[in-house]
Amino acid sequence: MCGGFTCSKNALIALNVLYIVVAFILIGVAVYGRAASLVTNLPIVGGILACGIILILISVLGLLGAVKHHQVMLFFYMVILFLLFLIQFSVACACLGVNISQQEQLAEQGWSRVDNATRNEVQEVFTCCGFDPVVDKTTPHPSCENIAMRCCITNDKNCVCPPCMKKLQHTINYAFKLCGWIGLFFSLTEIAGLVLSRRYRNLADPDEKLATAIFPRHNFTY
What we know:
The protein is an all-alpha fold. The protein has helices spanning 5-37, 43-68, 71-97, 100-113, 116-126, 133-138, 145-151, 164-202, 206-214. The radius of gyration is 26 Å and the shape is rod-shaped.
């Protein structure tokens, strides 16, 4: 019977193994989100990265609690998993809620903070020149001589490389949406872990019942 002790135990073990896989996916997506834009650290995406690391630790706790049917481990597993669900759900919603204007502000702040070497790397990676006409007046960008040859394949003298903001905005938006939807989807699966661990914690171990039946406990008076 799937609602029995053995089935609940195996299901909880399998779910925690899945959480470990999910945690590595979250970490990989968050690392991609932080590296994709180059000029911003995307702090909200950093929250997804932290959730992935914490999820690995919680999954190990859940595995130990499920294998040993340890009441204390399962209790703390449920509490921490619920708190992680709240954090991950909130961070995922925040990633999905960042609008275009806020993304542009993050990119502008990042461009202003980094040095010319990083700006030059951004220009080469995205084949662009400068950030945008307004920001370039206050924050000079590196030379675009090498990039101009890649931007303008033809010998058109009026050819100008596009500003990096247009290229960065698409990448940052994609990173936020990717982290948000993946984080939201996997945060909802943690509800299943809470329900299953609560049910499993309240079930009696049949092996313990059998041992008690074979070796009954008696109160002897000496």
